Amino acid sequence: MSNKIYRAKKIEIAPDNHNMIPWIELGLAAALTLILVFLHFVILRHSGNLWRDEIHSLNFIKLPSIIDMWENRQHDSYPILWLLVLRAWVFMGFSGTDFSLRVLGLIVGLGTLCAIWYTTRSLSMRAPFFTLVLFAMSPMAFIGDSLRAYGLGTLLIVISLGTMWRFLQNPTPRQMIITAVSVILSVQCLYSNSFLILAICTGAAVVGFYRKDKKLTMFPLGVGMLAAVSVLPYLETFLKSSDMYASLKVPLTMSLILSKFGEAIDPSGTLLTLIWLIFWLISTIVFIWVLIKSDEDHPEENKGMALFLLSTMLLSIVAYTVFIKILSYPIRSWYCLPLIAVLIIILDKGIDIVCKKSVAGRVMRIICVLALVSFMFMDSWTAACTRKTNIDVIAGKLESVAQKDDLIVIFPFHLGISFARYYKGSAEWISLPEFKSHNIHRYDILKIIMTQKDPIKPVLQKIAGTLQSGNKVWIVGNLISLPPGKVPVQIPPAPNSIYGWSGRAYLAVWSQQTVDILQSHAMTINKINIPLSEPVFKLENAELVEVSGWRP
User: What is the number of other CB atoms lying within 10 angstroms of the CB of residue 174?
Assistant: First the structure.
């Protein structure tokens, strides 16, 4: 077994006649980092109150004990680590206001910037230029500041990439412990991280095999196996959730997965997608070139890094695609957050190998980064200033205008989690379909409701009774409109319909049935304006509709 320690060479400095370029690069990277720090504070200031997924997490960690949390883990989307972190934050007294809770998200967001610097410096890069712009400045990345596990999961997967390479350079017992801890914490934060850790560990083992070093081969495989064992207790949870949350599942084709990945990296169009593709092609070619060139041109440690990054990049894409296919849930952009973080760091290194060979390349990189910042900043600023919900404002409005005998109807039902937190008025409110509790997401209950005949009939009767008695009905949410003259679809109990277990389909039908009642019998239907000076997160930007009067 070889005991050789592979240490990275010092970052090459440009010739003396161009000695300003390194300072310009560092100045640019420092300025980018400060801008991003500022944006994270803007997020903290403008995010406002919590939205339903964050409230779900907060309510979940308020179960009486950690044992209760563990026994109910099938009702949450993550392994236990993030819940323990959030529970500790609340235990320390930082739950008095939504703002104090959001400070935890700020810490995670700033920590992710530190993790990016740590890993890119571990890869002998002067600065994470394109990682800061294409990832950290992306509106999608700002979700990491919420009270969900994606931010911490991304932070940990980035650190895992860096610590694994540091181990390959210097496989000391201390570095082995650091690497193992980061890997295990990573898989305990997000289920998807298990697939990325598989790619990282396999990529590292490939380097060990290439170097004919048993230690470098066996340790990544061993720590990967240890990480896999650590998530085995969740296998039963995952299987239970797969059945309980069948109403959420959708068929995912490769074209759909690619389109959602494109939305994640480029929400505004195709330019950034094209840049990502160009960078991917350049980096792939560069890594292969480093591997096939002579040892005199590319020392052993550079070949090892190229092999590690190339293997990890390709395996990450395949492994994550497998995860998304297994999950089969509607893809949100932030589901791709950990994958995008790993990929952009690798691509950034590929571009760095090209640029540091020539002054012209480094100058072009500086110009490209400045151009990207100019192109992306307004979208990033808008995202940073976006409220996460307007349910709190609607709840406040209803407290002042809804009378005791009025009825408030929430659609879709999951908005009830937010409404339950913020509404303190006297009017009765129910969700459509009706749920007894709105503490956490319970799509398993939705599945049961879908098997019932006319499950929303009691809600429709309450709506009719309230209007007939001369009181008002207030609709909070986004009912799906029904064109005039069109009869709503009649749908049999699930799964005995063409829609199977599609929760979206059943919710759409129930919405149309509700709209049909209102259009057919209500005297007036008025949309109430909810003035806000800031944009609102699209997934919880609800409408408020006032309905009054009854005609046979």
Answer: 9
Q: How far apart are CA 412 and CA 128, in angstroms?
A: 42
Query: Do the Cβ atoms of 227 and 204 come closer than 8 Å?
Result: no
Q: Are residues 351 and 282 in the same domain?
A: yes
CA separation for the pair 475, 411 (Å, rounded): 7
Domain containing 225 equals 96-239+250-384
Token pair for 298: 């590319």
Strands 543-548 and 473-477, how do they pair?
antiparallel
Measured at the CA of 245, the angle between CA 436 and CA 335, to 5 degrees, comes to 115
Strand 524-528 with 543-548, pairing: antiparallel
Contact in structure between 146 and 105 (CB atoms under 8 Å): yes
Number of domains, the chain: 2
Q: What digits encode the pLDDT tens for the residues 65-105? A: 999 999 888 888 889 999 999 999 999 999 889 999 999 99
Q: Is residue 38 one of the residues assigned to a domain?
A: no
Q: Looking at the structure, do residues 466 and 375 belong to the same domain, yes or no?
A: no
Question: Residues 79, 84, 88, CA angle at the centre, nearest 5°?
Answer: 165
Judged on CB neighbours under 10 Å (0-12, 13-18, 19+), 112 is buried
| φ/ψ (deg, to 5) at 240 | -65, -45
Tell whether the model's pLDDT for residue 138 goes beyond 60: yes
List, for residues 431-451, the tens digit of each pLDDT value. Answer: 999 998 899 888 889 989 999
Asked whether residue 56 is domain-assigned, the answer is no
